[in-house]
């Protein structure tokens, strides 16, 4: 079936993930085959453990209209199945987001019979730069990079250009020129995630109270954009919410706990905590519990969608979780495959995110990771 999976013509307004499953089936080339088959067949083809409901779904109303193809990039076409692919993971795999992301890339490579070599920078940016250079020296002909930082990639980009190694970045952006430095970015709309987190906080607090922000690590677009979306929405919709404290918890559970312990000292009557990922939010729960708080005393809103965070909604500690889906394998390989075949690939592929609240947490828990 000759369908351009990355054809953006006729994009429709933003819809929910459920509706987008159907839209994606018509809009995405390489997934089209699966869409034509029964649900059971599709589910059985997901990376191990992933169901159709858990898979990433493109929000075809979001992102840039700009596209990139191999001719513009100045390369010859290639057959993905014959290529050696390098995957660079940024952070240590203590966070379920990272565990799930790496598993998704590895499972998809295995499913397609593609040779994959991997490296994990353990949250050290200089290590990630040498990791990616190492992947290229080991013969990686295509790269999938989950960047730790957004800036500072010049040495890698120059070498990739020299060696003609196309890059797909996932979950965070590399600051560079699309279709020159990299082919495409696949990830969420992080400003929108921040706005949706603010909407949940405003609802939880009835529009008034003191709120703290546990920031992610500095130096990447995810932290900047999640912060911007949250602050802008609070300023716009809830002038009686006061943002009284912000500090980085480095996207880790321990960081979230220790920053919240400090918060409790300086703001013992805090009403809400916005944690820019689940791990920090779970750390905040530990700190609040240790300070004698009960579930629901402090409204916590987080981002990611880990099983532990969703279970904390059921247990009453977390008010809501905005999803950030790390199952990038299928789309990352689809993008490289389409690019190699000479198709136009959008330079941004934005995925849609569900959200978890007290209303749906029990039912949706199986979709968490
Ligand atoms: O870049 C994505 C973010 O990085 C995830 O939300 C967070 O858990 C991770 O550390």
UniProtKB/TrEMBL annotation:
This is ABC transporter substrate-binding protein. The lineage of its organism: Bacteria, Bacillati, Actinomycetota, Actinomycetes, Streptosporangiales. Belongs to the bacterial solute-binding protein 2 family. It is found in: Cell envelope. InterPro entries: Peripla_BP_I, SBP_2_dom. Its main location: other. Residues 92-327 form the Periplasmic binding protein domain. Keywords: Signal.
């Amino acid at each position: 079936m000759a369908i351009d999976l990355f054809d953006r013509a006729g994009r429709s307004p933003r819809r929910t993930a459920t509706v987008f499953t159907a839209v994606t089936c018509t809009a995405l080339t390489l997934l089209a085959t699966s869409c034509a088959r029964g649900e059971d067949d599709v589910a059985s083809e997901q990376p191990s453990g992933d169901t159709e409901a858990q898979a990433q779904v493109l929000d075809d109303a979001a992102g840039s209209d700009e596209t990139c193809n191999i001719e513009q990039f100045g390369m010859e076409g290639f057959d993905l199945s014959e290529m050696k692919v390098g995957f660079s993971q940024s952070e240590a795999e203590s966070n379920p987001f990272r565990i799930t992301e790496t598993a998704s890339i590895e499972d998809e490579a295995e499913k397609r019979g593609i040779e994959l070599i991997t490296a994990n920078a353990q949250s050290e940016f200089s290590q990630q730069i040498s990791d990616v250079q190492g992947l290229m020296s080991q013969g990686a002909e295509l790269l999938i990079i989950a960047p730790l930082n957004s800036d500072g990639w010049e040495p890698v980009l120059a070498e990739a250009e020299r060696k003609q190694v196309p890059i797909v970045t996932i979950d965070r952006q590399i600051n560079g020129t699309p279709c020159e430095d990299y082919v495409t970015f696949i990830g969420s709309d992080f400003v929108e995630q921040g706005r949706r987190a603010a909407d949940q906080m405003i609802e939880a607090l009835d529009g008034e109270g003191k709120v703290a922000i546990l920031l992610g690590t500095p130096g990447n677009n995810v932290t900047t954009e999640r912060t911007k979306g949250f602050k802008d929405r609070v300023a716009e919709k809830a002038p009686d919410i006061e943002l009284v404290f912000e500090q980085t918890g480095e996207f880790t559970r321990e960081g979230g706990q220790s920053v919240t312990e400090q918060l409790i000292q300086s703001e013992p009557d805090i009403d809400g905590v916005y944690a820019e990922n689940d791990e920090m939010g779970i750390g905040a729960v530990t700190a609040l519990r240790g300070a004698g708080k009960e579930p629901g005393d402090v409204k916590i809103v987080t981002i990611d969608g880990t099983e532990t965070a969703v279970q904390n909604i059921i247990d009453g500690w977390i008010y809501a979780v905005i999803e950030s889906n790390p199952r990038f394998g299928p789309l990352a390989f689809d993008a490289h495959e389409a690019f190699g075949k000479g198709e136009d690939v959008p330079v941004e592929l934005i995925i849609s995110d569900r959200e978890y609240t007290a209303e749906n947490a029990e039912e949706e828990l199986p979709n968490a990771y």
